[in-house]
Design a protein that fits this description.
Elements: H1 2-22, E1 25-26, E2 29-33, H2 40-46, E3 54-55, H3 57-69, E4 73-81, E5 84-91, E6 94-101, H4 106-115, H5 126-141, E7 149-157, E8 161-169, E9 176-184, H6 189-195, H7 215-231, E10 238-247, E11 251-259, E12 265-273, H8 285-292, H9 299-315, E13 321-330, E14 333-342, E15 347-354, H10 361-366, H11 378-390, E16 394-403, E17 409-418, E18 422-431, E19 434-446, E20 451-460, E21 463-472, E22 481-493, E23 499-515, E24 518-520, E25 523-533, H12 539-542, E26 546-560, E27 570-583, E28 588-602, E29 605-618, E30 648-649, E31 652-653, E32 658-668, E33 678-690, E34 705-715, E35 720-730, E36 740-747
Parallel strand pairs: 2-5, 6-8, 9-11, 12-14, 15-17
Antiparallel strand pairs: 1-3, 4-5, 7-8, 10-11, 13-14, 16-17, 18-19, 18-36, 19-20, 20-21, 21-22, 22-23, 23-24, 23-25, 24-26, 25-26, 26-27, 27-28, 28-29, 29-32, 30-31, 32-33, 33-34, 34-35, 35-36
């Protein structure tokens, strides 16, 4: 039996050798038929054909695959016989032009051309046409054209060329009729509407692009919702789906399904520092841990701690340091273990930037904390990516790390996808204090240089004003923002203060973070003002009639320790600002101090206390100009008409040289049912405006005014409605009260 097996094995081996030899030939000559544009030599190079080499059937199959991969050919046949390799080919047509009929916008045509696989001067591959049509449909659906119809036609030309024509019928743009939030939300629907970017279509929102259904925007909304819940302690929140349904005659209905889950607190935060690192370098973090332990879990709070680790690493010149946070659920709490370790030691050889067709490379590189030649730090790279995202000029920013020219070098590739950065907005409002209208145009990436351009026009019953400002957020790669501005205004205050004024101003300022959460904002301002006083005004007011020119040095110091800029629930913010005259023409020194403190007393009560102090005084015993005199801001003394509070000269309210105010407010977000879509707060306001420097005989009404009341913000089909009921507790003889006030407005 063993002998038979051996004989069978030898037979199979000989058969295999014989078979292999019978299918092997040496290429002595190559013949190519059917090529018109592609030369014989080019085909030999693309097919990697080597004359004099042995070719088996597998080599021939590989040759055919290589030629098909060039996308130059629609049909290929190969025969190897008697040492001659015969190749018959049929070339794909060349695309002469690609036409998008039905699309007028040049930027959309360019975007489509770069998106598709069949392009001008390239090969026309019939099998790719269907996938390209689907890409066009997806492109327009992201713009809100969900009913687009596409018909592709091929126009044949001479010399095996074609024109590819896409006939586009975009149809009506899909609008969002309704937005619903379902499930165990635990957060009021009105608050969720404030978080997302998508909006319900209303007849007055004729400009807003957020009313159109956009797949990318919906995905962004889901991330915004999830991040909001996680920052509120809902660690396991699930935004499980966002369904879109079409309602005939109405539009699309967008529904977000939310499962908030339980609310978690920080239980313990600990450090695990690698033995190779200085164990004492991060001891100061224990104080930061103690501040948040016991509070509700928040990604924002955790990020602040990780940012402090980065700063400590920089201060102690610890290179190649990485960290990661390991989060573990423990009953109703979260344990955080932060591991700090030394990463692989590489140097950044080169930084490549791709995808920026509008934005200059310098804008992107200016936000990079890591530069070419620096130690490779994944932490600093991620911070750079976050800084780029914060510029709000890219829809996505991705990184890729590639090997460099030697084992100790890395190449960093930054891929960006640009977004529309311009916006036109308008708004209107009507209330007990009159009607108002505003319009604004903003651009966050002017000329592709990352410069912010803001222009605004405001109209009220008493004034018209316009402004334009240009801001470079990273001037000369310093990390400081620099702003130039032009302001023009005209006010008619004849009914309340007895004068009219027109003013033109120029400004130049900068803003930078001097220390953590401490910002400095110095600047220069110049103005020209013309004041016209009524003929029946007092002789003292008439003395202020005329024109005035001034140049001032302005500066501000801001300490911002709030947990979030929008609707903060904890922390404080302090600001001191001063305006000092340089060129004096009836000039004055103005001072402002503001303090705001926020604290969540419970899930249903968020308390705030605010303090304001202002002063303005003329130089060299000069009187303060009429337009520079102070009035109590309306939000600081509700229940009063603040333009008619304080000192009077005859029948004219002239304001004072000093203002102070204290405001205590408690927001009650869950007081009313969610269906009411109403936020309620109760408040106590007290304020004072006093002193008349140009005439000591005028009663300066140095007396505290105070009021208590209820404020409500209601989301109506027309837009946000805010109203206030207030009862004055104390007032001066001259003051005019306003027990009820409201304002309704919208943007479109």
């Amino acid at each position: 039996m063993k002998k038979i097996i051996n004989i069978f094995f030898v037979f199979c081996t000989l058969l295999l050798l014989f078979t292999s030899k019978s299918y092997t030939e040496v290429i002595k000559k190559v013949n190519i038929n059917g090529n018109e544009r592609i030369t014989k030599q080019t085909i030999i190079v693309y097919g990697d054909i080597k004359i004099g080499s042995d070719y088996q059937s597998s080599d021939v199959n590989l040759l055919i695959k290589k030629l098909y991969d060039t996308k130059f050919f629609s049909d290929i046949s190969v025969e190897l016989k008697d040492g001659v390799l015969n190749i018959s080919i049929k070339e794909n047509p060349i695309v002469n032009t690609v036409v998008f009929k039905g699309e007028e916008a040049k930027k959309f045509k360019e975007s489509l051309a770069s998106l598709l696989s069949i392009r001008e001067k390239g090969s026309f591959i019939q099998s790719n046409l269907k996938s390209d049509i689907n890409l066009i449909k997806e492109f327009y659906r992201n713009l809100g054209f969900y009913f687009i119809k596409i018909d592709a036609s091929i126009e044949k030309l001479d010399k095996n060329k074609v024109n590819l024509i896409y006939n586009l019928d975009k149809g009506e743009r899909a609008k969002i009729a309704k937005i619903f939030f379902l499930g165990d939300k635990k957060i009021k629907e009105k608050r969720l509407r404030d978080i997302i970017t998508s909006q319900e279509a209303k007849f007055w929102k004729i400009i807003s692009k957020n009313v159109y259904l956009n797949k990318g925007r919906v995905e962004l909304d889901k991330r915004l919702i999830k991040n909001y819940y996680k920052n509120k302690g809902y660690y396991e929140v699930q935004v499980s789906s966002s369904s879109v349904e079409y309602s005939e005659g109405d539009g699309f209905i967008l529904t977000f399904s939310i499962d908030a889950g339980n609310r978690y607190r920080f239980k313990k935060i600990s450090l695990d520092v690698a033995e190779s690192l200085d164990q004492n370098a991060f001891d100061s973090l224990e104080q930061e841990f103690d501040k948040v332990v016991g509070e509700y879990y928040s990604q924002r709070k955790l990020k602040k701690i990780l940012d402090k680790i980065d700063k400590l690493s920089e201060q102690k010149e610890l290179q190649f340091i990485n960290h990661r946070a390991v989060e573990t659920l423990d009953s109703d709490a979260v344990d955080i273990k932060i591991e700090i370790f030394e990463g692989d030691k590489y140097i950044v050889e080169r930084i490549n930037i791709i995808g920026n067709s509008v934005t200059n490379d310098s804008v992107i590189r200016s936000e990079m904390i890591v530069d070419e030649g620096d130690p490779f730090s994944l932490l600093l790279i991620n911070k750079s990516i976050n800084k780029l995202k914060a510029r709000n000029i890219f829809s996505s920013v991705e990184k890729k790390v590639l090997d460099g020219s030697s084992p100790d070098l890395k190449v960093l590739e930054i891929a960006v996808e640009e977004r529309a950065t311009g916006e036109i907005s308008a708004g209107a409002g009507v209330g007990t204090d009159g009607t108002a209208f505003m319009a604004a145009v903003t651009e966050n990436n002017w000329l592709g240089r990352g410069i912010k351009l803001d222009s605004r026009l405001d109209l009220t019953q008493e004034s018209i004003s316009g402004s334009i400002s240009v801001t470079n957020p990273n001037f000369n790669y310093s990390g400081n923002s620099v702003t130039t501005s032009l302001d023009v205004s005209s006010s008619d205050l004849t009914k309340t203060s007895g004068f009219e004024s027109s003013k033109t101003g120029l400004g130049l300022s900068t803003l930078f973070e001097q220390y953590e959460d401490i910002y400095i904002s110095p600047g220069l301002s110049a103005s020209y003002e013309d004041i016209e006083v009524q003929s029946d005004a007092s002789s003292r007011i008439k003395k202020m009639d005329g024109t005035y020119s001034n140049v001032n040095f302005d500066y501000g110091i801001i300490v911002d320790k709030r947990n979030q800029p929008f609707q903060p629930t904890s922390g404080y913010r302090t600001k001191f600002a001063q305006s000092l005259p340089i060129i004096i023409d009836s000039s004055s020194i103005a001072n402002t101090f503001e303090y705001s403190h926020y604290k969540g007393l419970s899930e249903d009560v968020i308390a705030s206390i605010k303090f304001l102090a202002q002063s303005v005084n003329g130089l060299e015993d000069e009187d303060t100009r009429l337009t520079s005199r102070l009035f109590i801001p309306p939000k600081r003394l509700r229940g009063f008409n603040t333009r008619k509070v304080g000192p009077k000269d005859g029948e004219n309210y002239i304001g004072g040289n000093y203002v102070s105010a204290v405001n205590v407010e408690a927001s009650l977000p869950n007081l009313l049912p969610e269906s009411s879509r109403t936020d309620v707060s109760v408040f106590f306001d007290t304020a004072n405006v006093w002193h008349v420097d140009y005439d000591s005989a005028i009663d300066d009404t140095n007396e505290l005014r105070s009021s208590v009341g209820v404020a409500a913000n209601v989301w109506t089909p027309v837009g946000p409605l805010s109203f206030t009921f207030a009862q004055d507790l104390n007032k001066s003889l001259n003051d005019e009260t306003q027990a009820f006030s409201f304002r309704i407005g919208t943007s479109f």
